[in-house]
Structure formats: C-alpha cells, structure tokens
Amino acid sequence: MFFKEIQPRMADAHLIMDWRNDPVTLQMFYHSSPKKMPEFYTEYLEEYFHEKQCPAVFAFLNDVPVAFLRFEEYQDLECVGRAMDISINVNPAERKKGMGVQVLKAAMGYLRERGISCVIAEIKVENDASIGAFRSAGFEYLDSKQKMIHDIQKSIPIVRYVKML
C-alpha cells in the first residue's frame, strides 16, 4: 500500500465527490446531501489543502485507489505532542474486503513520520462499519458525545476513538 497526495485538479475532486456521493457513504457523513460540480470543486480547492504537515491522500493498493484520507489538527484532546483527526472514505467498490483496516494501519506510519503522536476519529454512532474498522486498526474507545454541526444547525451523536503513536 502506498499513499499519494491529492492534487488540485478536477480528476481528483471528481473521484472524491463520486465516492462521497455513494448512498451508503452519504448516510454516514455529517452532511448527507450529495455534492455537485462545479460547487464541489470550489469547496475542494478552498478546504482540502490547508493541512500542510499531513496533506490529504489517496491510498493505493496495486495501483488501484482504495481510499481517501483527510487529516485536520485536533484541539479537543489532551495528549503529549500534536493530535490529528482522521477521516477515511473507502472506495465503494472496495468495501467489505477489510480495506479500511489495512488503510488505517498503514496511515499510522504516515502520520508517525510526520510527527503526530495522537490520532482521533469522530464517528457517527450508527456507523458500525467504521467503528469496527477503527477498533480492528488498534484504536480505543474514548467517549460518546454530541457534535454540533454548525453549518446545518444539527447536533449528531458520535463516538470518539483514539490511538497513541
């Protein structure tokens, strides 16, 4: 498995949008409305390239893109060193193959190499597949809470899982 940074080009944005708009994926996102071009491309350019130390990546296995990973610095966690929130979106064609667990395990090396010491995942409580993948990848349950999604004015129950590197 190898990681390749996303690029500010339409092809990368389309792939991410297509995976994100998958009906199963939409159910598990905080924002459950499908995205459309060209609005998504503008969002992609404005919001997906802020994290310089741990840029968003595609995970590849045998030259096939199997997942998309995005990282954001995380402030709401006591840890020694830098904490990073991780989001994963597995290629819908690669689901139910254990790909999420493989990608998450490999991502820990990617993050460790970049000086990250704590990784946290916020997961909707009903997302059993993601909860199982994070647990199988060595993440431990931290807590449950309500997460306020301000742009849609909605509170969503989540669980948080953490892994120390």
UniProtKB/TrEMBL annotation:
<dbReference type="Pfam" id="PF00583">
    <property type="entry name" value="Acetyltransf_1"/>
</dbReference>
<dbReference type="InterPro" id="IPR016181">
    <property type="entry name" value="Acyl_CoA_acyltransferase"/>
</dbReference>
<protein>
    <recommendedName>
        <fullName>N-acetyltransferase domain-containing protein</fullName>
    </recommendedName>
</protein>
<dbReference type="InterPro" id="IPR000182">
    <property type="entry name" value="GNAT_dom"/>
</dbReference>
<feature type="domain" description="N-acetyltransferase">
    <location>
        <begin position="1"/>
        <end position="165"/>
    </location>
</feature>
<dbReference type="GO" id="GO:0016747">
    <property type="term" value="F:acyltransferase activity, transferring groups other than amino-acyl groups"/>
</dbReference>
